Each structure stands twice: as C-alpha cells, then as structure tokens.
Amino acid sequence: QVQLLESGGGVVQAGGSLRLSCVADVRTSSYYSMAWFRQAQENEREFIAGISWRGNAIHYGDSVKDRVTITRDNAKKTLSLQMNSLRPEDTAVYYCAADFSRWDLPARRDDEYGYWGRGTQVTVSS
Predict the structure, then answer these.
(1) How far is C-alpha 30 from the geometric centre of its chain's CA atoms?
(2) Residue 89 CB contacts under 8 Å (≥ 6 apart), including other chains
(3) Whole-angstrom distance, CA of residue 61 vs CA of residue 44
(4) pLDDT in tens, the chain (126 residues)
(5) So what's the pLDDT on residue 51?
(6) For a 10 Å CB count at each end of the chain, is N or C smaller?
(7) How far apart are CA 94 and CA 112, in angstroms?
(8) For 36-70, b where at least 16 C-beta lie within 10 A, e where not — what string?
C-alpha cells in the first residue's frame, strides 16, 4: 500500500547543514500526516518534526526546534527536513513515517504512524 524511502543522510561537521528527503510510493487515495523521527544507538525513537496533509499544522521536537524545517510536496509525494546548526548529539538514524489515521494534526507518538522508511544515517562530527 505504502512504501517510503529516505535519502540525504551523510557525515557533516558540527555547525553544518543537511537536507533529508523522503519519497512516498502511495497507491491509496487516503490523506495522511507525515513526520520525521530519529533513533540514536541504544535510545528510543525521538520525534523530530511532523506535518499535516495540507501543511498548515506543523510540530517540532524541543531538541531541534529553531534548527530544522519540515516541508512536503503532495504533488511530488515528497517530504523534506532541512537541518541547520547540526550538533554531534544529532547523530542518529533518521526515519520518515506516514500516518493514515490522521490528516489534520501530526502526532508526536511513534506508534501513531503505520508506515516507515528504512532510515538514513546522519553523523555529525566535532
């Protein structure tokens, strides 16, 4: 029904920037919210940013607010995350997720999202 594929991860020096992308292969006509999560080694998945179907409702995690911007292009079926002023503690695998149960308000809980990409590694060196 849905497949998600992240890209854009890599190694960047502290203070630098990265732009992550997610392409959605969607064969249903349902509306859906989308989000970015990350998971560092031995840690729980952490909410980074979420965006509603229309893009009018956006949430950011406290650890990254003012440093990241989430956007989506429904015509192209893409989701993006611009990350600036990166820190070593931002090192993690970043996941794209889709929630087909909610279209107007992105959730912060990872268990609200039924579809996940395989992740892209972001490493920030000091």
Answers:
(1) 20
(2) 40, 124
(3) 14
(4) 799 999 999 999 999 999 999 999 988 778 999 999 999 998 999 999 999 999 999 999 999 999 999 999 999 999 999 999 999 999 999 999 999 998 888 999 999 999 999 999 999 999
(5) 97
(6) C
(7) 17
(8) bbbeeeeeebbbbbbbbbeeeeebbbeebeeebeb
Q: Could you tell me the two tokens for 26?
A: 């969607």
Residue 42 CB partners (closer than 8 Å, separation 6+): none
Q: Helices (H) and strands (E) in the chain — how many of each?
A: 0, 11
Q: Write down the pLDDT at residue 28.
A: 72
What whole-number distance in Å separates Cα of residue 6 and Cα of residue 89? 20
Owner of token pair 């502290």: 14
